[in-house]
Amino acid sequence: MDNNLPGSGGSKGGFGSLFGGAAPEYSNTELAGVPLTGMSPLSPYLNVDPRYLTQDSDEFILPTGANKTRGRFELAFFTIGGCCITGATFGALNGLRMGLAETRDMAWSKPRNVQILNLVTRQGATWANTLGSLALLYSVFGVVIEKARGAEDDLNTVAAGTMTGMLYKSAGGLRGVARGGLAGLAISGLYALYSNWDHLKGRSPTHF
Fold it and tell me: For the chain, how big is the Rg over CA atoms in Å?
């Protein structure tokens, strides 16, 4: 029996109708006109509208009423921990440099190794404590300002940075407060400018 006879399509349709309908059939001529570089609004291969498979926006599984971005309180732990690790790494490298410079006239021996190790640990702990304290103050001020204003923007960043510098240098009197405030204002202002650089240039920021 020849399966290509016109009557053979009826048997396929009969089995298809038994289960609620048969899938549409396309000839080779119709399939040859489908472009390979992109999908048509209704793909004859999948019989599914590709528009349902394309997502124009990111999808997140979040609790009801939650924001898609983390707030300052959630970022505070990451900020403090990152600053402590950065300070410890920088301090250790600085202590190694100082130890090698101070003991360059000594021969390689146990006393020299102990002295270098002491400088490495001391400088690492000092820098980790310093940057960790600054990050803690900045995070606390940021959270308080955000709760007080009821908004999250770059003004909170600049204000928190300025107040952090002022409080950290408050032991140096009014001149120390002024210097610390200016340093905090400059650093936080540069960070705010960097985070909004794409917006200032008229481009949408890239998210990874």
Answer: 33
Supply 196's token pair.
């909004």
pTM of the model: 0.60
How far does CA 111 lie from the centroid of its chain?
45
CA dist 118 to 29, 85, 98, 124, Å?
Answer: 81, 18, 11, 10
Q: Phi-psi region for residue 65, left (φ > 0), alpha (ψ -120 to 50) or beta?
A: left
**What gap in Å lies between CA 43 and CA 23, rounded to an integer?**
13
Residue with tokens 């606390």, as numbered in its chain: 140
Q: What is the pLDDT of residues 29-80, one digit of tens each?
A: 655 555 555 545 554 555 655 565 555 555 555 555 545 556 777 788 888 9
63: tokens are 């609790």
Separation CA 124–CA 111 (nearest Å): 20
